[in-house]
Design goal:
345 residues, alpha/beta, Rossmann fold, 6-stranded mixed β-sheet, 12 helices, 10 strands, binds adenosine-5'-diphosphate, binds magnesium ion, ATP hydrolysis activity, ABC_transporter-like_CS, ATP-binding, P-loop_NTPase, nucleotide-binding
Amino acid sequence: MGVEVSVEGLTKSFGSQKIWQDVTLTLPAGEVSALLGPSGTGKSVFLKSLIGLLRPEQGSIVIDGTNILECSSKELYEIRKLFGVLFQDGALFGSMNLFDNVAFPLREHTKKSESDVRKIVMEKMELVGLLGAEDKLPGEISGGMRKRAGLARALVLDPQIILVDEPDSGLDPVRTTYISQTLIDINAEIDATILIVSHNINLARTVPDNIGMLFRRKLVMFGPREVLLTSDEPVVKQFLGGTMIGPIGMSEEKDEATMAAEQAMVDAGHHAGGVDDVEGIVPQMKATPGMPFRQAVARRQERVREIMHTLPDSAQIAIQESFEEGFGTYDTEEFPLYEEPLESV
Ligand SMILES: Nc1ncnc2c1ncn2[C@@H]1O[C@H](COP(=O)(O)OP(=O)(O)O)[C@@H](O)[C@H]1O
Ligand SMILES: [Mg+2]
């Protein structure tokens, strides 16, 4: 099973520019979490901080008992082996076919025989739905396939923590749903701790077990998906609804006067874009029938029961409903193939 990642009081600046401060959250072991936020709020910086590529000046990041901001470079090297990372651009080698791209970490970091390498590569290619495309060059395939290849490469060293930066960027809504399903299936298959960084609303509403949001240099909230999805926080509602009304502005944020003026326009009938009704929760995606149980579901249910009394009422109600309807748990007798359809988002 994946390991927990525990972040406390984390602050990161570049020179005099503070990116975010006092970020505290725990990625529960083996669960899927998502970090949302408008463009430029420092999501990628956060992701790079977790693997030690960037160095926050305050706080701690504890992984498997080691605070990576204080450990030796040798310890950091060991901790990094726990990670598989899909960067925003996929970062494939353009001159290598997909097989060699995916095999690269194995050839670089292990002494595995070529036949073992082939076995592992083909297994991961299958998991991400790329079987048959081994001989293609990155330039010959679609953006969606490049993401999948990057994902396969992130998986070959059997990571316990998988970081995925904007798996949906450049993809159409249907391809985004396919990659969402793949991420859930990967979690079911290898039970790793997964953090997805994204600003995609559909993905946020259907994939993660836990959701956090960055805004105005702070972590607005982090917790079980129901907390954010039922939140009354203006910035969260605006983000999930994708509307122009709210604290998120064209560049990043708005002042009170602008917000009031815009609200007045909407009251007078102006359409602010986005979807009007973001109330309610759509069921979370499940692993494709035939995949192993997603063990995170049962573990999360236990965990959430324990913190239930600390959550807002609206979240508690939503969680209770999900337990009752079987969305939150695997009941193999009642839902042998988990076939209740996902409502359209
Ligand atoms: N290596 C760096 N040096 C200086 N500034 C950086 C660096 N990386 C990111 N930034 C700045 O940090 C801010 C957040 O960037 P980023 O994490 O890429 O946002 P997001 O991923 O949420 O869109 C931006 O203003 C960006 O210019
Ligand atoms: Mg980014």
